[in-house]
Amino acid sequence: MATTTKTEFVESTGQVGGADTVRPPLRQRLEPWFFVAPSLILLLMVGLFPIVYTGYFSFHDWTMGFGTPSFSGLSNYIEALTTKAFGLSVARTLVLLAITLPVQLALGMAIALALDAPHNPFLKRLLQICLVIPIAVTPAVIGLLAQLMFNQQFGIINYLIGLVGIGPVDWLGGSVSAFATVVIVQIWEWTPFVALVLSASLATVPKDIEEAAMLETARWWPRFKSVVLPYMWPGITAALVFQTAFTVKAFGMIYSIAKGGPGGATRTAMLHIERVSFRGFDVGLASAESVLMLVMSIVLAQIYIKAFYRDS
Predict the structure, then answer these.
(1) What does the alpha-carbon distance between residue 300 and residue 249 come to, in Å, rounded to a whole number?
(2) C-alpha distances in angstroms, 150 versus 143, 169, 171, 177?
(3) 236-267, pLDDT tens digit by residue?
(4) CA–CA distance from 154 to each of 72, 101, 149, 173, 175 (Å)?
(5) Are 240 and 285 in contact (CB under 8 A)?
């Protein structure tokens, strides 16, 4: 019987002593990074660099177009946290989030369940395409369309409610009605996104488990709670995180509808930051407020993950 030397064993199996694998060449180890490098560089330039740049200015005093930035420590953060205008704008943002998020989640769940029901595949695909339309339209365009639809004299909304005997409403002229308009448009714009996310989560539920549950009970709610919902928790969590980010950074739609008015009733955090930065030219304060909103979004996302995320 031919004997095999240790060198021949290593060359044939790639193992030393039967356990340690031989490391691949450096070129082979670096090859995957060459494929992801363009996307990684673009992500760092578009995503990480603005955050770092904003963080840098948040510790400096600088009036846009005048002089050079001077280090000011935490003074911008202290001013942001003690400024009434910024606090009110954050409160409006949180109110907008508290109203729209549950409604979007409920409507999105209803739409996702309707799409999951057995029906014509062509109709289902057509409905999914229709759901993409509000997401694809530019927020500023949505705001302009809403401004026309909610117009007191010529808007279609007042025409429709007039058919049931309700007089014309000055949607954009009152503080409460203007904020209500923003709430309605925000729900219309982003509910389809929630529906698509939840619909994708429903697709992960194994059909054999659903069929077995139908044999156990004919009631819908026990089957949904015990079988379907556990598979949907990751999608629900993702929808909550994304919708929180979309609502916190909402700007184009709200600005196009009412420009923060009347009387600041629709001036959310992003509109306030825009006002401080591009009208007051206080880049340092605006940067500090932006960082604080980013921190708030991260904290809310962590709360959602801790409270709602479940492994299926």
Answers:
(1) 14
(2) 10, 9, 6, 10
(3) 999 999 999 999 999 999 999 988 888 889 99
(4) 51, 30, 8, 14, 20
(5) no
| pLDDT for res 229 | 85
**All residues at 6 or more sequence positions from 212 whose CB lies less than 8 Å from its CB, including other chains:** none
- Contact of 178 with 253, CB cutoff 8 Å: no
Contacts for 278-282: CB closer than 8 Å, 24+ residues apart: 278/64, 281/63, 281/64, 281/65, 281/66, 282/63, 282/64
Q: What is the pTM (predicted TM-score) of this model?
A: 0.82
Write down the pLDDT at residue 113: 87
Residue closest to 311 by CA, chosen among 242, 229, 230: 230
CB atoms within 10 A of CB 137: 13
Across the strands, what pairs with 20?
Answer: 16
Give pLDDT tens digits for 70-106.
Answer: 998 899 999 999 999 999 999 999 999 999 999 999 9
Residue recorded with tokens 């339309």: 133
Query: What gap in Å lies between CA 60 and CA 176, rounded to an integer?
Result: 37
- CA distances for 32 relative to 21, 25, 35, 45, 295, angstroms: 20, 13, 5, 20, 33
